[in-house]
Design a protein that fits this description.
- This protein has 66 residues and is mostly helical.
- Helices cover 77% and strands 0% of the residues.
- The chain is built from 4 helices and no strands.
- 12% of the residues are buried.
Length: 66
């Protein structure tokens, strides 16, 4: 789960993020969303916390659209 979150967080474009989400759409269950929240809470830097939550929001929109 963490490797997938890292991959999505480090995506260089929205198109790349969309491709990653599409390839892993079945991974987006309650545990995945809880892990996003846990990682955000544990982030020490404000920028890291913001990046994780922005990625989670984008992923949520993409999953809902699918």
């Amino acid at each position: 789960m963490d490797a997938l979150i890292d991959l999505m967080t480090n995506a260089t474009s929205d198109e790349e993020l969309g491709r990653i989400v599409a390839e892993n759409v079945l991974s987006f269950d309650q545990k995945m969303w809880m892990r996003f929240a846990s990682r955000s809470d544990a982030a020490s830097a404000s920028a890291d916390k913001t990046k994780i939550m922005e990625t989670a929001s984008k992923c949520m929109r993409l999953v809902e659209a699918m």
